[in-house]
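TL;DR need structure tokens for one chain.
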Amino acid sequence: MAKRTNPAQIEAWTLDQLAKSTFFHRKLHEWKLVEVSDQIDAVRGEELSWDNLNISAQAWNKIIHRGIKPVLVFAHPQVLQVVPGAVGYYRMLAMVSQKSMKRVGINLDSYELGKSIGTAETAWTIAHHLNRIISVLVEADETVNAREFDLWRGMAAGSQAQGSWQNNKGAAAEVLIREAILRRLQDREIVVGEEASSTRLDLGDGRTLIFADEPDIAIYEGHLPLIAIEVKGGIDPAGVLERIGAAIKSLQRTRAENPQSVTILIVQGVSMTERARQDLTLSAATVTHLFSVKSIVEDESDRERFFGILGL
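>> reply
TL;DR here they are.
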């Protein structure tokens, strides 16, 4: 007899899947994997000298005989210097991590974030090391398939995203809401200065958005809280009153600092009981807006209403 799956467990795992998938998707764009690849493809590699770059003859011949542009496979110092993010492209093609590169004495972090490689010697050192690894990988394939190179990079990017996910993973519901907000900020190019992976973001209109605890998310003007958001992602109805009670207390503290502040509670719809709804009705003076996680993630009209309240 097939084992029955608890609907609450299905909802919990689905929420976790959504959170992780949206996190990985944002990393794809944050790291500009497609844009950097297109820039490298546009380089006229035939005009470059490929001597003394630690590329094996066997690997080189395999690439040339398949009609694949060498610049798409092997790192060249000049490309590393002129294409921002190219270092990450070739590191991922070699399927090595940033951490492992540090262990061999080559720190690429700042270069992958867009910092220029200052000297030709540094660029040569990076290219020389990565080409050694890439050559071995190319030699290992009987037949070289250009599409495989995207898979190599994808495997490395996925591993890196997994590491970032483990470092940043919190409650899945909160991650989903945070990702939705970050995606909105990036799409609208609202953030000033800091990258959209920070916990404190300047919105450019005198307001600051902060990801923290109690409240989970808040928008300030100076030290004055304008908007406070509490996300309660638990799906067990048995604990919903306790979760809502904790959220209300947090939002009450915000209201004490600024009685005119907007307060938003985001909950799992499947967890709501009649008693919980009654408690929220009695707390209408504290909670000005109520959303479900699902409506913000999957309902465009609710999501737009949510962003409208935030002024994003």
